[in-house]
Design brief:
- It is a single chain.
- The protein has 187 residues and is mainly beta.
- Helix content is 12%, strand content 53%.
- It has one domain (36-186).
- It has 1 helix and 16 strands.
- The strands form 3 sheets. Strands 1, 4, 5, 6, 7, 8, 9, 10, 11, 12, 13 and 14 form a 12-stranded mixed sheet that branches.
- The longest helix has 23 residues, at 2-24.
- The protein starts with a helix and ends with a strand.
Length: 187
Amino acid sequence: MGIYKKMIRMNLAFNLFFLTHAAIYPQKEYNIDSLIKIDGIYKAIGDKKLPSVIGVYGLNNYKKRFLGNLVNGKKHGTWKEFHPNKRVLVENYKNGNLDGSISLFYKNGQKEWSYKYSNGILNGSYSRWYSNGVKATNGYFENGEPVGFWAWWDKNGEITKKQDFPPKTIGITRGHNQYTDKLDLVK
């Protein structure tokens, strides 16, 4: 009877492993260039219907790079974008909305900025660093608005600006480039 129970446990463990593996790692992979995005949902170009869970890859310098998963046509889980200038953007999605930490890395591997989203809305800490690792900006967002104490530093680590944002003060961001190179909040 002991061997029988052991075989059943092994069979259950084996099945559980493969079911979990299939749920986490999709069976089909598609090139991002073969998909079209309509109203926030990715679809196959043409009449082909996509499986409910797929992996998506892109080509970077002729190398296949896994980007992330689509669940029912929406980004879900961790996505990585590899830019031609060797920067890497790491985003987290839930049901097509940014959800969790978002980070961009310099080509030397140093984190350039990091901030958090909750269901598509900026919510949580915001930090930015210079390529030498010195902190450039630190602050906090609540429901998409800057709140609390914010500070800015120069490349030598000297504070250049401090500002306190009361709750529900609308801030305007300016001075962005495509990688949020600089965040300057004004009332």
